[in-house]
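ARCHIVE CARD
Drawer: 12
Card no.: 0347
Subject: one protein chain, sequence and derived structure
Cross-reference: see card 0346
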Amino acid sequence: MSFELVEIGPCKKRAEFDLTSKDVQESFDEVYGEICETISFPGFRKGKVPRSLIAKKHGKDIVGEVKEKLISKTFYAMIDEQKLDIISQPSFDEKEKEFTEGEGFTYSVSFEIKPEFELPDYKGITLAKEDKEVTDENINETQENLLKSHAKLQEVEEGIALEDYPTLSLNVEDESGEVVHHNHSFMCALSSNRLDIFEIEKLSDELLGMKKGDEKEISYEVPAEFPANEEIAGKKVTLKVSVDDVKRAVVPEFNEEFLKQLGFETEEEYRNTLKDMLEKEFEKNTREDLKNQIYDYLNEKVVTDLPEDTINQHSEYLVNTKVMEMMRSGVPQAEAEAKKEELQSDAIDSAKKEIKVGFTLSKIAEAEKVLVTEREISNRIVQLASQRQMAPEKLKEELEKNHEVSALRSQIKEEKTIDYLIKKAKFDEKKAEVKKETKKKPAAKKTETKAKKTTKKKAKEE
């Protein structure tokens, strides 16, 4: 066997293999030898079947198996010899040449490898750490959001207010009066500025004050690009809206009954639980912020080529994830899909950063001998199983079946490496103060969701 290894792009190589007739024949002999030991044939004892009979009956299948084994064997022998760290699925090109017993064979394969680069100084990275204490104001704000999260929608006779949730029916007519779209009895949130598939600036100006049974016509010019319904793109239409009912969120009172509903006996117990939850949330947010600073530092300091195919695959994953998030938030599938191209540029930048920092953290982990034990993997599987409400054994079986255990190991190793870098970091108080002043206030919705989950869990445990 001989091969030639050439560079064909950033972190990408191609190997050209030239296998002699002897290489091919030895591979055929090896496979036939294995088959002869196991196959049964009428009139012959196992292991004594003539090779000619096996070739006559199973020849085509055997050729394919020999070819696959020989290519795999020679390729990975080359990888070991050259000490290459491949990161992509190898792409084989057999040049459409017939594979025949006793004749030579050539093939090529392209693949990506980890980039080679020098690590920057990673011990003593200067970070801004904001130590945030839980105050009564934080607890009260969380309590207010928690009450809102337990609000129930009740039908009211009054006209639509800004925070209401009216149920509407919609008929859309073109200039000839033909109905080109309709949707009946759907709930609308005015703050979204979305009326079914139509985005209307200041929707509240159109609907505020309308009561059950009221009707209204809205003239609307459909955008020239309208993936939600391409048949009406660019047309002038009339949106005929009727109000089926008006529902309003009624927030419960904070009282003993509400506490018991959440599983608490006293207000003190409840507030202590909220404080513990917020402390964990602040701690988690602080670590995430430090992690982002480390990512920014490593991304800036490391200079290296990056594997383009891997970058493109990861950016595609990021775009698809964003599209799925948009769809889950209520954006129609066609509209969400249409934004893929718009999202692609940011996704490429994000993919480059994540891939580069991922390689860097992996190299730091290797240098500092950061290891992941089987116990740590088992503990993480138990944790994930609890979140997904399934048995740990079943989740482990699924992860092994889908070959995802190695990805879980890499995730834990990266987390441990981040913890190591935080432990070795220097903290700049002035930098932290500047960061604190410019930092935006966390969204109430996120706090509300976490509070709701915590109290539900508490109630279940009680």
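Annotation on reverse: Confidence is low (pLDDT under 50) at residues 441-462. The chain has three domains: 2-112, 126-142+256-461, 152-250.
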